[in-house]
Model the fold of this input.
Amino acid sequence: MRKKVAVIGAGNVGANTAMRIAEKNLADVVLVDVLEGMPEGKALDLTEAAPIEGHDFRITGFSNDYGHVEGSDIVVITAGVARKPGMSRDDLLSTNMGIMNSVVKEVSAIAPDSILIIVSNPLDAMCHVALDTSGFSRNRVIGMAGVLDSARFSAFIAEELQVSVENIQSFVLGGHGDSMVPLPRYSTVAGIPVTELLPEERINDIIRRTRFGGAEIVGLLKTGSAYYAPSSAVTEMVRAILQDKKKILPCSVCLDGEYGINDLFIGVPVKLGEKGVEKIIEIDLAKEEKEALDRSADAVKSLVMAIKRLA
Done:
């Protein structure tokens, strides 16, 4: 039986995710959005590309209609608003919390056995809303962050060393934001730790660029944010789950004592398979690395507390 993925939010991230999932021959895709005509239009455009790209997967779009989400193996949620001039952090949290709550109520009712991949920002906080609203087990609510952040880290390392990105394996842990924790000690180039190939000063520069990678793109675009790399990151997670790859990827998951952290969504390495998060991988952290992860957890906790205050 063919797999099915629903993408809620047909903006740039959602539409590119639909395109990549179909073109990688992973699943049929349903796009849902609140804007009348937008998901239908983008789905039609992508459908017309199928004969050229050579795939037979169906991409359909529906405005304000969750009925077609039924039977989805995975539901990717990208819905939400970007922070606008004059909008406070609490305003952004309140708005996106309401959107996430509404979306997840619809999805959990119509696709109760699905796995949720959360993309909406602030990501780790929105994962908490999705988990609480859905009532799903923690292995079926997963935040997309670490895959994207690690890809940025890898891209910058490859650029610095002038080597193929295929040689790079890197890990970024922690919350999806300025407090993320890139780990050069666990990042390698053809198996060689990056700490053996670059001086500490250059590594620190790359770490800073990784932490502010999203902001750098926003600054260049002026009127938008990243969507090509985020959609690739989501698709890699979708592939690992649908193909039961048992692939270890850094994802935002709800920790239950792992790394000494409880009841917070934090980016850590996990094994992704057909059941979603099948194992949380605990790695040994040096004292300064653990302190950085704890600071990142504190930043996520402050967002969660703000959500509870606003609820």
Notes: The mean pLDDT is 95.
